[in-house]
Amino acid sequence: MQPFVHSILLIASKDLRSELRRPVSFLSTIVFCLLMVFLFGWMQMLAPFEATSQFPVFVWVILLFASLFGTAQTFAAEVENDSLTALLLAVPETSCILLGKLLANTVVLTAISLVTVPLAFVFWDAPGPERMHVFALAIWLGVAGLSSLGTLLSSVAEQAGGLAVLLPVFMLPLSLPLVIAVVELSHAGMGATGGLQPWLYLALVCDLLFLSLNLLLAGVLLEV
Amino acid sequence: MPRTAALPMGVAAVMLTNIGLIFFYAPVERTMGLVQKIFYHHVASAWIGMAAFVVVFICSIAFLVQRQPRWDYTARASAELGTLFTTIVLVTGPLWARPVWNTWWTWDPRLTSTLIMWFMYAAYLLLQSVVSEGETRSRLAAIYGIAAFVNVPLVFFSIRWWRSLHPVVISTAGTGLTREMQLTLASSVIAFTCLYAYLLHLRVRMLRVEEQTALLEAQIIREET
To answer: So what's the ipTM on this one?
Structure first.
């Protein structure tokens, strides 16, 4: 168990250090998110939206696109340096690679959402969430699930030729249940009345399912 | 009659019988009128769309376990047919909905789930077409086929809960069927299942021949050089 977890942490730290050394993907995604926040802010001047019901929708549109950009480059370094074989030889199980990358992607996307969401509140002049813990949980569950799905499908897209359009085509239909769940959970966090539990369970089921797919399919996904 | 002609003739006979039942046996629905006849092919196509996805899922697992090309051919052929039948559902649905619900489209759970399923099929076929190398293509498609299928129940339930928690303006409930209508619907489902099975058989054979031709072509080129 210990070498398994150790390998996951090593791969995650490798990816994070590489991202810190040359934060092109991270900075581009942050700038994209800020542009979207400003764009929706200007749109709000033309047609004001209702904060409680519509704020989470716009936030999740931005975070969904951020997850597409953020996870698209997951395997780019390995492909560029032809180092996947070495990585496969270095880990006790193939799933360590996917889980390590998943962890790194989750950290990066959490950082992106920590910058984007507070700025969205400021620029869209939205009232703070009535149930902060529910709102924060919704953001984290969504980010974790999208990172998980994005890590799995970015590997598929990379091996399929690396066309930029492939990842959104693969990922958007599959991410729909999770997005619906976290949008509704964010609504609840903002103070909307309605059921909280079904959405919490659905988000958890989606996260677990995507994580299980990473674990179960890693062996056949990362074949050299 | 030659053996090769018996199968298509049989499928054609089942399909013609079904069309006969729809137009001459099943009664015209009192409030919706003739347009309700779309229902028989609409529901049968939806059934095939879903069944084809199950076949893709089973064959994808079988391929990843056994690595035999026949599972990939079957999964691919089933996905193509699933896309075709799901497209029929998405076309006949609005044609039926417009005169009955007074709208071409509504974000009803079934319609939305079907549309999402169509996008998944489209992504699967796109994946099959962008990768040229055989083994990689089959492996990646199998992985996506499994990931997409396990997501289908979540898509359906998430949309159903989402819509049921919001006001639903147009309801699809309350379609009482007479005995004749039920029999006609059952015959449509049988006829479409026969058609699907026959087309699947043809397409799998075609994919196998394509693969063998490509191998032969490569062998001839190798021998010439």
So the answer is: 0.88
Which pTM value belongs to this model?
A: 0.87
Best CA proximity match to B137, nearest among A51, A156, A74 = A156
For residue B61 the two structure tokens come to 């697992």
Nearest to B201 by CA among B19, B53, B55: B55
Instruction: Report the amino acid identity of residue B2.
Output: P
Q: In angstroms, rounded to a whole number, what is the distance separating the alpha carbons of residues B85 and B105?
A: 18
Residues of A at the B interface, defined by Cβ within 8 angstroms? 152-153, 156, 159-161, 163, 166, 169-170, 172-174, 176-177, 180-181, 184, 194-195, 198-199, 202, 205-206, 209, 213, 217, 220-221, 223
pLDDT 10s per residue in chain B (225 long)? 566 788 889 999 999 999 999 999 888 877 777 788 888 999 899 999 999 999 999 999 999 999 999 999 999 999 999 999 999 999 998 888 888 888 888 877 778 888 888 999 999 999 999 987 778 899 999 999 999 998 888 877 777 676 654 334 334 555 567 888 889 999 999 999 999 999 999 999 999 999 899 889 989 998 887
User: 3-state SS of A92-155?
Assistant: CCCHHHHHHHHHHHHHHHHHHHHHHHHHHHHHCCCCCCCCHHHHHHHHHHHHHHHHHHHHHHHH
B144–A170 CB contact, under 8 Å: yes
Q: Nearest CB to B136: which of A159, A194, A199?
A: A159
Cβ–Cβ under 8 Å, residues A50 and A91: no
| CB-based contact B84:B119 (threshold 8 Å) | no
